[in-house]
Give the backbone structure.
Amino acid sequence: MHTLSNLLSSIKNAQKAQKRVLYFSSFKKISKRKKRFVCSACKMMPRVFVSRLCWDFCRILYNEGYIHGFSQEADGSLRIVLKYHSSGIGVIKKMKTISKPGFRIYSSKNRLSKKREGLGITILSTSKGNLICDREAQKTNFGGGEILCQVF
């Protein structure tokens, strides 16, 4: 969950700074107890632990039309190309983390509410460890899961 929070905040900050491309790569283990995120010299490209959770999250954002694309680079980093309107405003207006490590929120597919007249999406975690959006959950025979975040 911390990985997803880092990814959400990095995307928010990149859109505020109107960056087109983000690069995410794994962090280095400094010692047994400390883990630090390795940043580039200019500190413009945040680096976050790349996991299947990040990959699935980017896949959902791409399928729903919130980003232009994403790919894995040769060094193992994740490259995300953000999408902007012609006026220069980011397509993603708001990203909100719902479930937190200390306070998990679960819901069934019938109880998922439509925020902002259905313009946003809610991202859920299934019992198999996959991420799906609320539209996929209502189309398939999905029982319920943990609500991770909402994207508008």
